[in-house]
Amino acid sequence: MDAEQIRQLRPKLDRFLGRFADCFARQDTRAHLGVYVRGQLSSLPEKSVEPMALEAGVAPRTLQEFLSQLKWDEDRLRDRVHEIVRDEHAGAHAIGLFDETSDPKKGDKTPGVQKQWCGRLGKLENCLVTVHLGYAVEDFHCLLDGELFLPESWAADRERCREAGIPETMAYRAKWRIALELYDRARADGLHFDWLTFDEGYGSKPELLRELAARQQNYVAEVPRSLAAWLKAPRVVTRPYHRGRRGRGRATPRLASGSRPARRVDALLNDRALRDQAWQPWRVKDGDKGPMVWECKQTFVTVKDENGLPGARLHLVIARNVLDRAEVKFFVSNAPPATGIGALLLVAFSRWRVERCFEDGKGEIGLDQYEGRRYLGLKRHLLLSAVSYLFLARVRQEWGEKSGVDGVPVAHRDGGVAPVVVGERPSGLGPAAGEGGGEDQAPAAAQRPGSQEPHQGHASETARAGHTTDQLATMHLGTNLAL
């Protein structure tokens, strides 16, 4: 980034923020939008309300009121983000991404805070959790929307909710339901997703897969190895069976007598149809320490539904890390039968995009630095952070930045967003991040309790020390997915 480009940033940002002007009825309220976003884009080490306000010469209380009390239309601002992405960043093979992120908090006043699974720390901790919808197409990615996960204990304590400004109509919802609401809002604003993808915390919810299928939305979902399915669907009968032609007949429909039970997808690897199938190597992407290569098998399975009967017929893709064959991932997809394994893998291994959004959002614009006690303030902070990130993503795409401001190559090699200081000297690059591994990644051995919709542990996609070009020099790398 040269000096002329830095000088262009301030008017460029002003024009960009002008597109949100109709979200604010009063000019003085509208002026706080620039203060907040410029604070998030600055080189301040802390990007909570107080340091951003003091840097701008504004009373901290005024900026706090902008978040939590002043009247402006945050829903219209969110819709404008959707419209900009829809009209200016649409493209073939657009991917929507569901994921959540957690932020440790002290005290008990922040909306939704309690001791629950904190993926950022990899353990149970006092934190709040938010669910997000990300968007990725070609080398562009951003966050479209986000919402608080309200734990059951909070939803049951309406007095506590009222103190935090949580609407009476807001109740406990499973995280997958929140994600589906974010998707429906984006679709209502005209956004199109060729694919959706998400980890097994969401893929383990059959209701979500059914809802997406009902919306005719293609997905590639990581699923737990315990998912039950058949390689060959058993026969279902609807005629009651009476033992000895007497007594009450068995419920129908039911599996025909003698049908093989559904098996876990990891056990299906021992079936001849998969056991005899050769592993296909695919170079998923180039990490910091060399190419990341996975070998895969693909077949079709019929998953067992909630009634124990054959459900949807889906693609099953089994992917194994060639340098750590104990690391195995299972994916299912409702894509058309003719869809190739390369297309499915391209979507499945795109989830690092939303994790990168979290990483950059927290490291560069203060996504995790909300310190208020009101739900409205948290909701607006999430949306304003999406606005700030969208500006950075647009600048990077427009200027084709492939290196940091000091000329140092970006560690990810994936088109990540480097911090930009508006109207000042640009800040340096943050610490290098692992390829595809968000900071909410839990240790592989960590176990999460099930009471508050916790995620299964993200299997690490980080390039390990063993991922070196030398080690793979004699290996057939297969097709490069070019993520």
How does the helix and strand content classify structurally? alpha+beta
Oligomeric grouping of the chains: single chain
Question: How many structural domains does the protein architecture include?
Answer: 2
Shape: globular
Strand content: 15-25%
Task: Please give a handful of descriptors for the protein shown.
483 residues, 31% helix, globular
Descriptive overview:
The chain has 483 residues and is of the alpha+beta class. The protein folds into 2 domains: 3-193 and 354-399, no CATH class; 201-351, no CATH class. The chain has helices spanning 3-18, 27-40, 49-56, 60-68, 74-88, 152-156, 158-163, 175-188, 200-203, 206-214, 272-275, 341-348, 352-364, 375-399; strands at 95-104, 114-118, 123-137, 140-148, 195-198, 219-223, 228-230, 236-237, 254-255, 263-264, 280-287, 290-304, 310-321, 324-333, 479-480. The strands form 2 sheets. Strands 1, 2, 3, 4, 5, 6, 7, 10, 11, 12, 13, 14 and 15 form a 13-stranded mixed beta sheet that branches. The chain has a two-stranded antiparallel sheet with strand order 8-9.
Secondary-structure blueprint of this entry?
Elements: H1 3-18, H2 27-40, H3 49-56, H4 60-68, H5 74-88, E1 95-104, E2 114-118, E3 123-137, E4 140-148, H6 152-156, H7 158-163, H8 175-188, E5 195-198, H9 200-203, H10 206-214, E6 219-223, E7 228-230, E8 236-237, E9 254-255, E10 263-264, H11 272-275, E11 280-287, E12 290-304, E13 310-321, E14 324-333, H12 341-348, H13 352-364, H14 375-399, E15 479-480
Parallel strand pairs: 1-5, 5-6, 11-15
Antiparallel strand pairs: 1-3, 2-3, 3-4, 6-14, 7-10, 7-12, 8-9, 11-12, 12-13, 13-14
